[in-house]
Write a sequence for this structure.
């Protein structure tokens, strides 16, 4: 399972939410990896330019080989971050693959923002993009309001129910991936 998200700030609240969801995926038996922070500082995606930076190539290959994804974005001004959106734009490079885009893969989506409005609108955008890329958004998505919930460095949060929900998203992505592999 591949996690994508966070912000350029190491240890951001969105990156901590991603780590919790990936822990849930690992608990369900997944091997996990993540592209966060500086790994998301990629050149703007340009479909007309076939040349890719080393980081972009690594991201594309990681997505190509993942059985599922967990995508977490901070909510900035009611929308997903440009950093996460640009990373998702690189999935276009998988359009000609045998398994194009995110076809046959579960996508757990989580939005982290200081306020419910930004968290919910960002979550909606993440779900829409997952659908557009032919992914299967998990039944549970996560909208986290950091005005009410704070994540700590140890993988916990001020609200244990939020941690439980994020872990469940990770498990749902893993279970779907396991079911797809069984087919």
């Amino acid at each position: 399972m591949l996690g994508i998200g966070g912000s350029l700030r190491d240890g951001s609240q969105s990156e901590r939410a991603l780590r919790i969801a990936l822990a849930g995926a690992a608990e369900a038996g997944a091997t996990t990896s993540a592209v966060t922070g500086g790994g998301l500082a990629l050149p703007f995606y340009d479909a007309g330019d076939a040349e890719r930076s080393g980081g972009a190539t690594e991201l594309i290959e990681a997505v190509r080989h993942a059985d599922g994804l967990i995508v977490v974005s901070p909510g900035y001004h009611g929308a997903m971050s440009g950093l996460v959106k640009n990373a998702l734009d690189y999935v276009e490079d998988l359009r000609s693959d045998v398994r194009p885009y995110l076809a046959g893969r579960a996508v757990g989506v989580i939005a982290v923002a200081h306020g419910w409005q930004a968290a919910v609108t960002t979550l909606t955008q993440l779900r829409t993009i997952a659908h557009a890329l032919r992914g299967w958004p998990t039944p549970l998505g996560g909208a986290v309001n950091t005005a009410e919930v704070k994540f700590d460095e140890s993988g916990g949060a001020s609200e244990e129910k939020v941690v439980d929900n994020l872990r469940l998203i990770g498990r749902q992505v893993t279970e779907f991936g396991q079911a797809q592999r069984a087919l």
The longest strand covers residues 68-76. Residues 22 and 170 are 6 Å apart (CA to CA). The mean pLDDT is 95.
